[in-house]
Amino acid sequence: MTSSDLLAGIPRPFLAPRQVLVGDGAAAEAGTALAAWSVPAGAVGVIADSAVAEFGIAEPLLQGLEAAGYRTHLFALPVGEPTLAAAQDALDFLRSMGPKAVVGIGGGSAMDVAKIAALAATTDKPVADFLGIDPEAEPGLPLVLVPTTSGTGAEVTRISMLADEQGRKVICSHPLLVPLLAVLDPELVVGLPPAVTAATGMDAMAHAVEAFLSRNRSPLSAQASLQAIRLLREWLPRAVARGSDMDARRATLYGAHQAGLALNAGVILGHSLAYTIANRKHLPHGVTCAIALPYCVAYNAGSELPGADDLALAITEGRSDSLDDAAVELRQLAERLGLPTSLADIGIPADEAREMAQECIHRYPRPANPRPFALDALTDLVAAMACGELPGSGLPGLQKNEGVNA
Ligand SMILES: NC(=O)c1ccc[n+]([C@@H]2O[C@H](COP(=O)([O-])OP(=O)(O)OC[C@H]3O[C@@H](n4cnc5c(N)ncnc54)[C@H](O)[C@@H]3O)[C@@H](O)[C@H]2O)c1
Ligand SMILES: [Fe+2]
């Protein structure tokens, strides 16, 4: 049951793709769908993750586009972080071939490059001119996004994250980055290795939970959060333990997508903590999110938050309406997935706590976090995260230290 608290609130926008193709084999239908949106036959620029291109994961998509009358031109992204330079190369590639549409296929890295390149492609400006919140922009090329990881929800959001020359994350946030078409094809994620499945799945979980806690929550983002949490909570351990389990692959892909929709409300303290961890240890984004998320929930547990019981019940699968218990449950989930759960696990000492708290406040402030950022309280929180201590006591019936194969 959903409490009426979740239906109240001030007016807020909620963005989503114009069409979502969903189901096994959906990628092969993208060409037909694009034509149905009156995108004329001609060249299409496909920005693809290099592993996805190499393993032939993009083949059904490419064949479907060709069958619908499009000539596909593939740009395989360099391995590693999506950089401003790589996005500029992708943009130059698009301009050299004059495409009718742009398709991004891969994880968040490839989709983020495709997004900003498609936006810039109808202008003569460089990618760097599109950084920031709501940069001046006009509609870009029609955009199709096809995730091959179950995590970022980038196929939904108004965000593109890139790395600058110093390796710092820079953002472009604009409503025009939301695509015309998103394609959720579980067959594309079936080969995702367990470690990537675990990390990207916990990134999605962090999006859903933090968006729910955000003061920018809306009735629609709240429902998307709860749906995402239920799907990921139940199915992520199975997707990690047995990648060929199609039910688990479907549930986690659709859960990550719902979490992307929830991101209309944005993220809060958990992602601030995750970035401060990433600044000290180069780890996948989802791993840092998994460590930080229980502490984000614990920090906000005492604040006045309508619907907190709905959130706790979703996370604990109906066993508790307490956010402290939910925080413990999230840490146990990360443990089951084989992810680190404390700063000690990844070699960050407790004496970094004050500096990390300051970094959260100054570099990654979150006005929408329910409990304001306070230096002493955040220092204590990071110190607790260093040794893996949470305030909650845990719930009867939860199986601590249960391995995913157990
Ligand atoms: N735009 C947004 O709203 C948004 C939200 C969150 C994160 N992000 C960004 O997304 C990026 C992370 O994206 P990600 O977590 O999806 O990882 P990723 O795109 O970097 O991919 C992770 C790894 O998985 C491989 N891979 C991808 N699909 C595969 C498949 N089907 N089979 C085998 N290997 C596969 C890739 O080659 C890569 O090595 C970061 O740059 C982050 O900042 C963006
Ligand atoms: Fe994230």
TrEMBL record:
Domain Fe-containing alcohol dehydrogenase-like C-terminal: 197-384
Superkingdom per UniProt: Bacteria
A Pfam family hit: Fe-ADH
Keyword Oxidoreductase attributed: yes
InterPro entries: ADH_Fe/GldA, ADH_Fe_C, ADH_Fe_CS, Alcohol_dehydrogenase_Fe
Domain Alcohol dehydrogenase iron-type/glycerol dehydrogenase GldA: 17-186
Keyword set includes tRNA processing: no
Keywords of this entry: NAD, Oxidoreductase
Membership in a protein family: Belongs to the iron-containing alcohol dehydrogenase family.
The name this protein goes by in its record: Iron-containing alcohol dehydrogenase
Organism encoding this protein: Arthrobacter hankyongi
